[in-house]
Amino acid sequence: MDLGLQGKWALVCAASKGLGKGCAQALAREGVNLVVTARGAEALQATAAELRTLHPGITVHAVAGDITTPEGRAAALAACPQVDILINNAGGPPPGDFRDWEREAWIKALDANMLTPIELIKATVDAMASRGFGRVVNITSGAVKAPIDILGLSNGARSGLTGFVAGLARQPRLAGANVTINNLLPGAFDTDRLQTTLKGAAAKEGVPVQEIAARRARGVPAGRFGTAEEFGAYCAFICSAHAGYLTGQNLLMDGGAYPGTY
Questions:
Q1: For residue 252, what are the contacts with CB-CB under 8 A and spacing of at least 6?
Q2: Which of 14, 96, 117, 124 is deepest in the core (most CB within 10 A)?
């Protein structure tokens, strides 16, 4: 299927690896020009070089920096001639007990997982509307649907973004101008973040990491972890010309792990 994205420009945050990279790869296959950002310059440049090699027909700009800062956002936006597609993505805050979190921890979580996406949306959607096309995908978490007790910082910040998007996406000046805003909620995907979590659990229990991974995978009805490639393919479809009637939605991709009906 031709997704109708040839020649568009996308800003993909946290794109050096993991789910962000999966999204960048999928968009590149559709002929989308890219601005990719991440804090780690070396990994980001390697990803950009890989994308250029595999897809010589597109332009790829790599902007190393912290997208959660005004300077990082300004640099990323300046590198993109126009933002037709915005993929908001940032690592989640650490787990823990809410009794141990001071105001600084909450502000940091809100900055990364709520306020930064809102700032980038604010900077881009009106221009999208004026051109008659725009796609915003916020990578949040399956925990928005089924909160995880030790991830209170993430639960709170991402739920705040979810509520904000629910109102904004339905504004006629955006939805009526072919600008869609959706949230993509990953479950357990085989990324560096998951591997770090598994290693931590294995160390705590004193068992091989493979045992922890197998146990966790058995808890997913699909019987496995997701891949960044399939996540990226779904993201690319949400950004496609065929998805203009899809907006304001929380799209869960978790191998069937969420047990609810709605």
A1: 142, 145, 185, 187, 258
A2: 117
